Amino acid sequence: MEPIPVLTPYKMGQFDLAHRVVMAPLTRQRSYGNVPQPHAAVYYGQRATAGGLLITEATGVSDTAQGYTDTPGIWTAEHVEAWKPIVAAVHAKGALFFCQIWHVGRVSTFELQPGGAAPLSSTEKGVGPQMSFDGRLEEFSPPRRLTVEEIPAIIDDFRKAARNAIDVLTAWRSMVQTGTSLSSFSRIVRMTAPTSMVAVLRTGVRVGIRLSPFTDYMDCHDSDPHSLALYMSTKLNDHGILYIHMIEPRMAIVDGRRVVPKRLLPYREAFKGSFIANGGYDREEGGKVVTEGYTDLVAFGRLFLANPDLPKRFEVGAELNKYDRMTFYTSDPVVGYTDYPFLE
Asked: Care to name a GO molecular-function term for this sequence (predicted)?
């Protein structure tokens, strides 16, 4: 029997992975008051497999980093202690756990900011109204543009969050989603990910980064996304970045079947580390891009959310559970979170 491509082993830097199925970061809004909860240990533990790679939901680096209620933080001692049993549950299964740290920038409201202040951003332009999954119209508050003098403090928040993550995680990664022009975006990312984390790199811990050059989410897009992505993929080679996790442009539909547009290949070829592709893949398409050398690893989001035993289902060709969008962002600690059924 031919091996299933996404279930073949892969060596990612110093880490030996048993398969190439990665759990993508998924915001779930079940960390009450920004504190990770015990039910998260169940959730991540369910999806952990020996030699598998899981990436945590986006985790705030400071009290100004919050854009949604009940998303986890890692900027206080309380947060660090709350993460420890979650990491233990993942490690008990023999899995590798990366922590995705973030700052939401302008995607926030006065109510979620300390002292009711304006959200911080690289621009004074606000985010337009956005439709939520349950049909509500979400409004965001006008942001305040950071001064040049304030930028080092934000970078320091990432540094401190990374140090906290090291206290509880085997490895960690940095994610930056704000920026306007190619030069300003790349400068901030290069300052935040490699330079401010150099002390961490010296300890042998590795850093990955997630890039979404083709997104138009939250009124955020770049005038030349190809040049941006190629520039970043090349420049990050200078900093020993372990992997790039990149979001695929939207799938095309051909003859009733989803087809990968395959626009990430130039960046995969430019970057010397491991490459993770993400964006609507299934078992067949994921296997195809691995076989063709288009990517090293494939991240799955909604499929992993609804199928805690996703690698096993891929192995036996089992039918997948269907996900329920209405439970993506609720506060329920069980429904739509840890109650999706296993094969056995």
From this structure: oxidoreductase activity
Give residue 308's domain range.
Answer: 5-205+297-327
Residue 333 in domain: no
Cβ burial, residue 192 (10 Å; 0-12/13-18/19+): buried
Q: State the total domains in the chain.
A: 1
Distance CA 4, CA 107 (A): 40
pLDDT by residue (tens digit) across 73-114? 999 999 999 999 999 999 999 999 999 999 999 999 999 999
Rounded to 5 degrees, φ, ψ at 225 are -60, -30
In a domain, 32, yes or no: yes
H or E element in which residue 175 lies: strand 171-175
Reduced to 3 states, what is the DSSP secondary structure of residue 63? coil
Q: pLDDT tens digits for 175-213?
A: 332 633 444 455 556 555 555 554 554 554 578 999 988
CATH number at residue 20: 3.20.20.70
Q: Is 267 domain-assigned?
A: no
Q: Specify if 291 maps to a domain.
A: no
**What does the alpha-carbon distance between residue 57 and residue 213 come to, in Å, rounded to a whole number?**
20
